[in-house]
Amino acid sequence: MDADAQPRSGRAPPGASMSGAAENARMLAALLGVEEEEATERLQRRVLITADDGPAAGWAAEIATMLERTVLLTNDPAQADVELLVGGAAARASAPAVYAAIDAECAVVSRAPVGPLGAEPPLPLFAMICACGAAAAVLNAVVDDARLPPTPDPLDVRLADLALPALRGLAPIDLSGAVLVGAGAVAHGFLKALRHLPVQGRLDVVDPKNVGSGNINRCLYLSDGDVGDPKATALVEHAASDFHYLELAPEILEFKDYVAKRPKVPLAIVTIDSRRARRQLQKYVPGKVLDASTTDVRGVVVHSHIQPTAGACLACIYQHIPDEAARERSIADGLGVSLAEVKQGFIDVAVAEKICQAYPSLDPGTLVGKAFDTLFRELCGEQVLRTPEGRQVLTPFAFVSALAGALLAVELVRQATGRAETNYWQVDPWRAPLTRMRRKRSKIPDCEFCSRPEADTVVRHLWG
Q1: Mean pLDDT, all residues of the chain
Q2: N or C: which end of the chain has fewer CB within 10 A?
Q3: Which residues in the chain are classed under CATH 3.40.50.720?
Q4: What architecture does CATH give domain 173-320+397-463?
Q5: Average of per-residue pLDDT across 210-214
């Protein structure tokens, strides 16, 4: 079985725009300390995926989904720069090989041949998580540079380390009343994982932004045809067919406006990419929170809590840090606006006119309602501007965001089954998730939410 379509040469991966491919190259260039041209060349090296029939073929397709938005895939052994051999398949190319195998309990990815594992196939959610690790290992083989975050050899991912309850026979999880906050890359990974769980009810998807060309390289449900459409609508339209008993409903507005219509939010599943926005979200006091975030390509953080909580809230986890202020100042300087205006989050009519004075080629009408960081990233992607420090705003590879979303689904199951005894999990996306990295984070004394005297009163009024 060949998990691929036709060979590609010098083009963006399937479903990815040239802008998205350029974002991948900029991220790699920053990691390696090389020019973008060299990073682009490395990401245009081709991967051939060869798999045995049966469960290995399905897992190979999952890995291909993670890889195809970052590197080029080929079905021609003569073009292969790296071959991924899944499930004991025989090599078809003379290129360097990466070997991968999976069963119900573990997955192994190595540069050396992997011996046979058990015969029982993996649960689909576990297979997706392991596909993210396999993509990391293959990318390391493709780039072939010690400056890239390393994957261990062998990479050994074990189901036991996810601390999941038994999924077979799991009671349906009713998401009625829940809201998915954000429709970006982590949200896509979450829904790709959620389709493997018995969910029902209705899940609102809240996001005020439109799809940009730079979103395509990491949002698993999107393609070039979605650029310009509302992100919430595009995600719901593409993901809806994956769910038989769960209704997905797009809400094209900010979370504060959503809460104005519906003051009590029983469950907020948070995937937005701003520390400030997460702190702001906490003041609306959702009853339960599931949250996942990425730190460029180096880390994934998963947080959860149920109110009232003695542990950390979103504002505790994402407290204000100096780097955050520096980024906001860079955005303000780069766009020619004030820091106070950037802190508003979204561009209004007056600010759009001001930005267009600095960038006459832009249309004020297309800027209104757009997030400052989104516009800044787009202009960086087009190399129209750089931050004063010469650093660009960079986005993760697809497998990193997908892993964050998948681990968010893991936490949903743990919360739904009463096993959420920890509230913080830090994971290296280039290594196996480890249960020993789970922590119980406490409140911070100067939290802008928890430290307010009225916070406890509000929590108990809403949630008892």
Answers
A1: 89
A2: C
A3: 173-320+397-463
A4: 3-Layer(aba) Sandwich (3.40)
A5: 85
